[in-house]
Amino acid sequence: MPMQGTSLPASLLSIEPFDRSMVIDIYETMLAIRHLENEIERLFLRGLVRGSTHLCQGQEAVSTGACRAMSDGDTMTCTYRGHGAVLAAGAAVERVLAEMLGKGKGLSGGLGGSMHLADLSIGAMGSFAIVGANLPIAAGLAWGHQLAGNAASIAFFGDGSTNIGAFHETLNIARVWNLPLVFVCENNLYGEYSPIAATTAVTDLAERARAYGIPSERIDGNDVFAVTAAVKRALDLAREGGGPTFLEALTYRHKGHSRSDPGTYRPQEEVTEWLARDPITRLRDWLVTREVLTQEAARETDERIDAATRAASNEVLDWEEPSADESLTAVWQ
Amino acid sequence: MTKWTYREAIRQALVDEMNTDGNVVLLGEDIGAAGGVFGVTKGLFEMFGPRRVRDTPISEQAIIGCATGAAMTGARPVAEIMFADFAAVCYDQLANQLAKHRYLTGGQAELPVTVRLANGAGSGFGAQHSQPVENWFLNHPGIKIAVPATPGDAYGVLRSAIRDPNPVLVFEHKKLYPMKDDQREKTIMPLGRGRVVRTGRHATVVATQAVLHNAIAAWDVLAREGIGVTVIDPVTLVPLDIELIAESVRDTGRLVCVMEGNQPGSWGEHVIAQVVGAAFDHLDVPPCLVSSPGTPVPYAASLEDAWVPNVAPIVGAVRTAATA
Lengths: 333, 324
What we know:
Mean pLDDT of chain A: 95
Order of helices and strands of chain B: EHEHEHEHHEEHEEEEHEEHEHEHH
Low-confidence stretches of chain B: none
Number of strands of chain A: 8
Largest sheet of chain B: 7 strands, mixed
Distance between the termini of chain B: 43 Å
Structural class of chain B: alpha/beta
Distance between the termini of chain A: 31 Å
Structural class of chain A: alpha/beta
Mean pLDDT of chain B: 97
Largest sheet of chain A: 6 strands, parallel
Helix content of chain A: 40-55%
Low-confidence stretches of chain A: none
Strand content of chain A: 5-15%
Shape of chain B: globular
Order of helices and strands of chain A: HHEHHEHEHEEEHHEHEHHHH
Number of strands of chain B: 14
Strand content of chain B: 15-25%
Oligomer: heterodimer
Number of helices of chain A: 13
Helix content of chain B: 25-40%
Strand order of the largest sheet of chain B: 3-2-4-5-7-6-12
């Protein structure tokens, strides 16, 4: 949904005027992501989601905020922890669940699975299983936008991606070619099982991007309005021909790296501290304080979306898997 | 009749496609201002400008990634990998991303990407600038592979590749860049169609690129000995025109594949496996693969010359097959 001027506050701390329906919509999107991930977790424990899956509970503000700033024609790529981004971009929850379950009517026809959600019709150009692989491709999307018009591209990636070669190649070429590319780094302080300081020479990730001459900012990734404001500024700059921006969004994942990871390598006090900064709770408190929703209405919204997600999942469980013929025709155009 | 070189034919294909379709854009290292290290893209920067002919940093992952991403916005990128061996630097972007992104999105993504790579041995560039890299990619569903051996085919195959909605790797043999040939009509050669280059009844020889020309020279020698050979150039390895080869083997009963490159996982082994499946009852002798000696490409001239099968081993292999 395109942004208009001062429709949203600059952060959860600001007191500017805002569009009531827009902030409710944002709240509902974040809840939709939370309940989707909770449902996927349940499906995984039942053995219905296969292999592995990478959940993003706790990081909803980054994907929701960034996707909210996009305009029609903009594109987005994300990582294997991308269910939230693809949902926030506007994908139908039934089709996301269907892809997770390997159904023929999944977003990718059941051929991709958890790590490869994509809906090109809404600009969700791919989720990428190889760390950092989406970055050179995001540069390509941005280059294509530069050739064709004034759209821009957003690339989501994690702190761990900042150590892979493709990251550095992309930052460099984005600056040299002045690409309309917004780098959104979800720094959740851990690259898989490793804390960032154990693997990363410069843990101020915005500083790493500054080394490439790219304007960079560290933001509160659990303040959805701050994310939207920062991404909107970056997209506007990109569209005016101002080139790339790097945003380091500080956030935290509530769960382990993947479903097989109980996350015991993180200190309990750290986990507790971050759970208290839950982006959905913070937004709910803001909505109640600003009298957009009552406490009761907020709870009802939460329950409604939880129920809707479970119902969607139950429906999708009965859908068919793809046929072998369908698999073959997707190789060549 | 006018003549053109393999290099000029490739350049002409790029010019003709860029004039036909405004979405075709080029990117690669030193392709613009410098006209390409092999001079293939000379003049294109002046003709089409910096918007459509882009010099890149030395960033192979970014080169292929940019081609993949831009293709999804409606551009038709032609990326150059300066020496085919550098495909190892961007192997993830080629094999995991470009080859698979259409499939992984259930057919949503359209990836009309062409990648041109300077391929092959015999020019003294050493082991990391001389490999026959087409063999690395035989096994990745989603990528087409072309290995043209003549100026006419280089022209026709490259135009086809650029028009193809799928990713295509076009391997240009660097030794063939100065090769001159008559410029007949400029035709677009469909991918997946091989070519019978010489005919004869005693054996079928399959060869590509530089070795194809050695096989043609071997045909002359063998003809003088009364041994007739059908020489086939597959032109494309994926998709492969196996029926053209099998049909000939059903006639001759003898198959000799000749290639520069080591055996394991090579197109030569693949052709033999396919022909055995398609024409087993017609084989009079076991199929033969003449290949490189199982080392990286050596630098010393005599060793590198021997690494690429030349006329003598081809003649020897055919003579053995024909008289067995």
